[in-house]
Design brief:
The structure is a homodimer. By secondary structure, chain A is mainly α. Chain A contains 10 helices and no strands. Chains A and B meet through α7, α9 and α10 of A and α7, α9 and α10 of B. The first copy, chain A, binds a DNA duplex through α1 and α3.
DNA sequence: ATTCTTCTTGAACATTGTTCATTTTCGAGC
DNA sequence: GCTCGAAAATGAACAATGTTCAAGAAGAAT
């Protein structure tokens, strides 16, 4: 009995096309924003019919959600790369990395956080879970810094910090709103964390 | 010479309809979200043709932007109502009021912050200015608390704090993401400000 | 080679934003 | 009041875009 998954010619083509569609969709979202993503454009660029896009992803939301899924995966991978020796440094590193990633892929992250489903269908659970997992990357350093805090408190705190940093970055990069230059934004985020760590009693005031 | 603006019957009808259209659009956005707002629904509910909506607002974005304009005005009015005797209390009050307002009008605020214009037309300046004015409500208490800080520093700090609180609240109320119960969210915001004010040296650690 | 299954296609449809020639309404001058 | 010109309202037609599906093409199985 052969356990190796033989990939038929059919599956090969299918997979290749699937990846191609995603790449094209991601490119359009990243450069021109989610609102500019059109089925026909994607189909044409991928050299297939609109029907095939539907065949592969169910509906157009399916394409968007798959791109979003990959976005949060890429983000998490980047965040996992932050060194963990010093917990304080790690927290700064996480924020800084989030800022970098957001600045590089602003439209992709907006798609992740702002996309509303048609009707009121629920957002897929697995994506929500992945976002939570990203949140959770702050748990270990926080636990090391606040050994007396219980899990619930840590979970709350990490979510609060993540949300706060997310707010600073997403509004800061919103060119239409304020357009903070990235370098200044970085400083802004740093000072924010400075103050907050002092406030939590994690770091002595300078 | 008569300075009183005579309102012709024509203008009366026009104004009444304009208000009616806005009311209906606001209602739909508030209850079903921006994505569910359709010209034909609005026109039908207002008892007029779609053409009249365009006649009055130019395009559909015009309706949305007018609703957004009124949302930020209502928000600012609410924030202005926060007592200003004690600057620390005022900061807490501003955050708490923002939370209340956001919880009451989540979809309206999302429309304000997330709506993207067609093509890449710029977001109207006057709305951006109003949002900045809302930010600026934190200036006076911050100046009182940090008398040695210069204006730029104050402006940066107020924007940072606003954005951070906005992030905590908007993600916190995003039922699909995390769904923090409002009461817990309130506590979360409070603790956040606690820590930050301590970190800024404004309030002694407890 | 034949048959069966599955995928692909793209025309047709549905929904929704937008335009504009026509009609209606209003106000002004008589 | 009546008439006429300007302004507004209308809604059918158009345009853009998501969605479906019957028919055909392509691959797999025998």
């Amino acid at each position: 009995m052969n356990n190796v998954q033989e990939e038929s010619l059919r599956d090969q083509k299918k997979n290749r096309r699937r990846l191609q569609i995603l790449e094209i969709a991601r490119g359009i979202i990243a450069t021109k924003g989610l609102r500019s993503l059109k089925v026909r454009d994607v189909a044409e660029a991928a050299g297939c019919s609109v029907g095939s896009v539907y065949n592969e992803f169910g509906d157009f939301d399916g394409v968007i959600l798959t791109v979003n899924r990959e976005t949060v995966q890429a983000l998490t991978a980047r965040l996992r790369g932050v060194p963990a020796e010093d917990p304080v440094r790690q927290l700064y590193g996480l924020a800084e990395t989030y800022l970098e990633f957001f600045a590089e892929h602003a439209n992709l992250l907006r798609s992740l956080f702002e996309h509303r489903m048609e009707d009121d269908r629920p957002y897929p659970d697995d994506i929500l879970q992945m976002v939570m997992d990203a949140f959770a990357l702050m748990h270990p350093p926080l636990v090391r810094l606040l050994p007396d805090a219980d899990d619930v408190k840590i979970a709350l705190l990490s979510r609060t910090l993540f949300s706060a940093v997310h707010g600073i970055i997403s509004l800061g990069l919103e060119e239409r709103m304020v357009a903070v230059p990235p370098q200044m934004l970085r400083q802004q985020v740093e000072q924010f964390i400075d103050a907050h760590l002092v406030g939590l009693g994690i770091v002595p005031p300078r």
